[in-house]
Design goal:
The protein has about 475 residues and is α+β, with helices and mostly antiparallel strands. It has helices spanning about 45-55, 90-110, 125-145, 150-180, 185-210, 245-260, 290-315, 320-345, 355-360, 370-395; strands spanning about 5-10, 15-20, 20-25, 35-40, 65, 80, 115, 120, 215-220, 270-275, 280-285, 365-370, 440, 445-450, 455-460, 465-470.
Length: about 475
């Protein structure tokens, strides 16, 4: 007996709707006798189904299949109707892009006046390269946000990760005049700080204007339920990694903590040599040896980096976490590049308080280098970058099962010979575990009935022999996992 299926939204390849007592995802043009994946007809089930659908289909490809986004009056049990959020305000995206553009313009203007100690950023190649990298990433993010759709999300996450970590770096720069007097800071510092503030505001606005990914129920005739379109869209979906993804996630978190820890020790080493052969080695750059305001900025950098890495490791879908992570890695990599540029510049003895006469008398020379802590830091940054690439290029999960295909005698209702029970908790954006595999949720009574019929797959050399059968509670074995 075929279920009555109501399709609500379609994408490029898949469509989402509701069967007799479940929410499901089907292939467009395929048989609707069996969904590729399905979830219980609950708020959590719909949230999980929509999140899965949003992973499979880009937001720009999703269109309503019926006129009424509430499914033309069709309601889920319990007097609730479900409608996903699929778009955002175009005006908000444009405003975010403009803010990022203005912030970048302020940052560029801040490169030329005095920044710290009477010297501009353009006169300090080591600091200049880092600021140019920040401005380039904010510029690219602004362009992506302006395009909207999926690119809006990429630009928003990239700019957000960058803005979070660079807050501490700019605060550390501002800490020099805070601790030593306003005369140490110039107009370049003021313009750069304003540029960061405007870019951070644009990043936040772009983040809040990402394409909606989940929705919740709206009680018929009642108040707006949490998670509904009227209550706002859920932008952050976190979940514990499982199975094969657990190891890389743990490695990512450890690399983030290692990078934060290696940021604190001194990176620069200077060796002073006299004509008589006397030498002295000095290290500089310890984050905890600076004035209090500068030290506070450095500590914020370390805490912010660790926090972003942990959130990125838990972010679902994992590709979105990778983009946020990339935004946080970029300023840390820029700091390493800045240190390498500084070593290549050479060091003048006058920077250590020696007069030209003393330098000539002693035959003093200074060579600059980098401490082991710096190279350890670089290793951790590389591990972060590799982890980010792994997250970004991890094959997307798909609902199409390998080996599933029609047999020679397959009828119209047998074109999906193999399917599986989806785990709602794996894609549940609300954080509420849906008892799909363990127990059946009785929607009418709202209680756990303790009964559930799942399905297991049977494989053979001939795809036509593929079949499914109900598995009762007494059968052995686990429910099939999601397709990789």
């Amino acid at each position: 007996m075929l279920d009555k299926v109501t399709i609500a939204y379609r994408g490029a390849t898949y469509e989402i709707g509701r069967g007799r007592d479940y929410f499901g995802i089907w292939t467009i043009g395929g048989s609707r006798s069996q969904p590729l994946e399905w979830w219980p007809e609950t708020q959590e089930g719909w949230s999980a189904a929509w999140t899965r659908f949003a992973v499979l289909e880009p937001p720009d490809a999703i269109t309503p299949a019926v006129r009424d986004p509430a499914w033309s009056g069709e309601r889920a049990r319990g007097g609730q109707r479900f409608a996903p959020v699929v778009g955002t305000g175009r005006d908000g995206a444009i405003a975010a892009s403009l803010l990022l553009g203005v912030g970048v313009a302020l940052g560029i203007a801040g490169l030329f006046p005095d920044y710290l100690g009477g010297s501009s950023l353009v006169a300090q190649p080591d600091n200049l390269v880092a600021h140019v990298i920040y401005l380039a990433v904010w510029t690219a993010s602004g362009v992506l946000v302006a395009f909207g759709g999926t690119r809006l999300r990429i630009g928003a996450l990239l700019a957000t990760g960058l803005s979070i970590v660079t807050f501490g770096l700019f605060l550390a720069d501002a800490g020099t005049p805070i601790s030593g007097g306003a005369h140490l800071g110039g107009a370049g510092l003021v313009l750069s700080l304003l540029g960061w503030l405007v870019c951070a505001s644009g990043s936040a606005l772009a983040f809040l204007n990402q394409p909606g990914r989940t929705a919740g129920p709206v009680a018929e005739g009642g108040p707006v339920a949490e998670g509904s379109p009227a209550a706002g869209r859920r932008l952050v979906t976190l979940g514990w990694p499982r199975g094969a993804a657990l190891g890389p996630a743990v490695l990512l978190v450890l690399a983030g903590l290692g990078t934060a820890a290696a940021f604190a020790p001194a990176w620069d080493t200077f060796t002073l040599r006299t004509a008589a052969g006397q030498t002295q080695t000095i290290t500089a750059g310890n984050a905890f040896a600076d004035p209090a305001a500068v030290m506070a900025g450095n500590v914020i950098v370390m805490v912010a980096l660790a926090a972003v890495v942990i959130v990125a490791a838990l972010w679902r879908p994992v590709r979105h976490g990778a983009i946020l992570l990339a935004g946080a890695i970029i300023p840390m990599a820029a700091q390493a590049i800045s240190a390498l540029v500084q070593v290549g510049e050479g060091t003048s003895p006058t920077q250590f308080g020696f007069t030209p006469a003393q330098v000539s008398q002693l035959g003093l020379t200074i060579s600059a280098g980098l401490t082991p802590a710096f190279w350890i830091y670089c290793v951790f940054v590389v591990v972060l970058a590799v982890s980010c690439a792994w997250m970004l290029f991890t094959p997307r999960e798909t609902a199409v099962l390998a080996g599933a295909g029609p047999g020679p005698d397959a009828g119209a209702d047998d074109r999906v010979p193999m399917w599986h029970v989806a785990r709602a908790d794996a894609y549940d954006a609300t954080g509420v575990r849906s008892p799909v595999l363990e127990d059946h949720w009785d929607i009418d009574r709202g209680v756990d009935s303790g009964e559930f019929d799942s399905y297991e797959e049977f494989e053979s050399d001939n795809p036509a022999d593929a079949a499914v059968r109900p598995r009762s509670q007494g059968d052995e074995g686990d429910a099939p996992s999601r397709p990789a």
